[in-house]
Model the fold of this input.
Amino acid sequence: MVNKLQDLPHKRFNPLTGEWILVSPHRTKRPWQGRQESTQTNVLPGYDPKCYLCPGNVRNQGATNPDYKDVFVFDNDFPSLLEDSVNEFCDQDELFQVEPESGICRVVCFSPRHDLTLSRMNPGAVRKVVDIWCDQFTELSARKDIGYVQIFENRGDIMGCSNPHPHCQVWATRSIPTIPANEDIRQEKYLREKDQCLLCRYVERELQSGERIVFENDSFVALVPFWAVWPFETMLLPKVHMGAITDMNDSQKKDLAEALVRMGIRFDNLFETSFPYSMGIHQRPARENSGDHWHWHIHYYPPLLRSATVRKFMVGFEMMGMPQRDITAEQSAKRLRDLPEIHFQDWDV
Ligand SMILES: [Zn+2]
Ligand SMILES: [Zn+2]
Ligand SMILES: [Zn+2]
Done:
């Protein structure tokens, strides 16, 4: 079956979302005449006096950043959610439904260094980022007005990230957003019907096969999911069952920091560029008793397709029908797996 999957068009099912994706491996030989993005070669300074995330700088709303030495968290000056949204917006008109939404938006700077990324930081420094993620999840998910804590990183200006300073965002919402809510339902259903965790079973099967594995350490596996939509989409999954990042013990947190750096280096090495992506953590909702069905994980959605300048667009059939890809998940995994884990900027040293 595997060889046919590399040659013939077919659909693949995503059991986490219940959606299908079209795979067209026979198209990978067609000539490319699409858009070429300009290559970004500008070297960043370690400190930028105009950056609102660098230590000691004044932010747009007047607050001054402390002279922080590792990680730094603050409430977003332009939050997409407000803590005290009122209920008067409620409207249950069948065709014009409105519900209130409230929440908290924070920014986490990974490092005081303006010119670093997760892939250029050492695992010890990234471990502090992991600890901050855990602290944020613990604090925010304990609040009565919070239903879900979404941690995500948007990296690179082609992902619409306005500032290269290494940082992520934490959006804690009253309700559970659509995508994790869907994964919540699918994982709950799988556990109920099969008496086993969906992602525990999936990781077990992927480790047996090995063909979509990028790398692993004692606690985590990085793989291109069977149902990947983006050309080099990957997931980072704990090998043992855990509902939230706060369930990790000390050595698992250390292994996560290491895995984040290794994944970042492989991505950067793929097209020898600072690899853009959206990355995010999916974990159990904030409510108590949110069930045993949640297996937390990280998704990476990188847009690049065949070089540092050629990206994938979700247009045409993908907007109207379903997502589609040419290069198979197995081919992408092999390319990422075959890359060295020394960052390309250190290759000459
Ligand atoms: Zn900066
Ligand atoms: Zn599990
Ligand atoms: Zn997910």
About this structure: Residues 197, 199-200, 241, 295 surround zinc ion (ligand 2) (CB under 6 Å).
